[in-house]
From TrEMBL:
<keyword id="KW-0496">Mitochondrion</keyword>
<keyword id="KW-0804">Transcription</keyword>
<dbReference type="GO" id="GO:0000422">
    <property type="term" value="P:autophagy of mitochondrion"/>
</dbReference>
<dbReference type="Pfam" id="PF04930">
    <property type="entry name" value="FUN14"/>
</dbReference>
<protein>
    <recommendedName>
        <fullName>FUN14 domain-containing protein 2</fullName>
    </recommendedName>
</protein>
<keyword id="KW-0805">Transcription regulation</keyword>
<keyword id="KW-0812">Transmembrane</keyword>
<dbReference type="InterPro" id="IPR007014">
    <property type="entry name" value="FUN14"/>
</dbReference>
<comment type="function">
    <text>Binds directly and specifically 1,2-Diacyl-sn-glycero-3-phospho-(1'-myo-inositol-3',4',5'-bisphosphate) (PIP3) leading to the recruitment of PIP3 to mitochondria and may play a role in the regulation of the platelet activation via AKT/GSK3B/cGMP signaling pathways. May act as transcription factor that regulates SREBP1 (isoform SREBP-1C) expression in order to modulate triglyceride (TG) homeostasis in hepatocytes.</text>
</comment>
<keyword id="KW-0539">Nucleus</keyword>
<dbReference type="GO" id="GO:0005634">
    <property type="term" value="C:nucleus"/>
</dbReference>
<keyword id="KW-1000">Mitochondrion outer membrane</keyword>
<keyword id="KW-0472">Membrane</keyword>
<keyword id="KW-0597">Phosphoprotein</keyword>
<comment type="similarity">
    <text>Belongs to the FUN14 family.</text>
</comment>
<keyword id="KW-1133">Transmembrane helix</keyword>
<dbReference type="GO" id="GO:0005741">
    <property type="term" value="C:mitochondrial outer membrane"/>
</dbReference>
Length: 147
């Protein structure tokens, strides 16, 4: 039996994009804020719509999560009461106390890693450059949570 050799073409994206200005417009990272690309009304609409969708989904997922946690806790209590499971409450208390101690320890340190600080700085810069978009998103998010 003969071995069939497949030949593959390799696409060099760096060379491809040099000859295609539309590619750079669509996929190139922009150096400016979205305020330079869109007018105020468009930014408000984009921010509002994405904010409303996010708020609406957040509300639905929040209700689902609360129902799941509450229902799980309820079933656990029934199983404990009927004797299907036994909960070692002393062990639970010890674990809760350990968690409290760790939270106190981390809170007293008050040190932020450089990676987190740089990400926070990037977010703050983005929010300052896109105030209108951010405002529309916040308003839409609140409307989505209320609906």
């Amino acid at each position: 039996a003969g071995v069939k050799e497949d030949s593959f073409n390799v696409l060099d994206l760096a060379e491809y994009t040099k000859n295609r200005p539309w590619w750079r417009k669509v996929f190139a990272p922009s150096s400016g804020s979205s305020a330079e690309k869109y007018n105020v009304a468009t930014q408000l609409v984009i921010g509002g719509v994405t904010g409303w969708c996010t708020g609406f989904i957040f509300q639905k997922v929040g209700k689902l999560a609360a129902t799941a946690v509450g229902g799980g806790f309820f079933l656990l209590q029934i199983a404990n009461h009927t004797g299907y499971i036994k909960v070692d409450w002393k062990l639970v208390e010890q674990d809760v106390n350990k968690a409290k101690q760790q939270l106190k320890f981390h809170r007293s340190g008050n040190k932020i890693s450089p990676e987190v600080k740089s990400r926070v700085d990037e977010v703050i810069i983005f929010l300052k450059k896109n105030v209108i978009l951010t405002g529309g998103f916040a308003g839409g998010f609140l409307l989505g949570m209320a609906s």
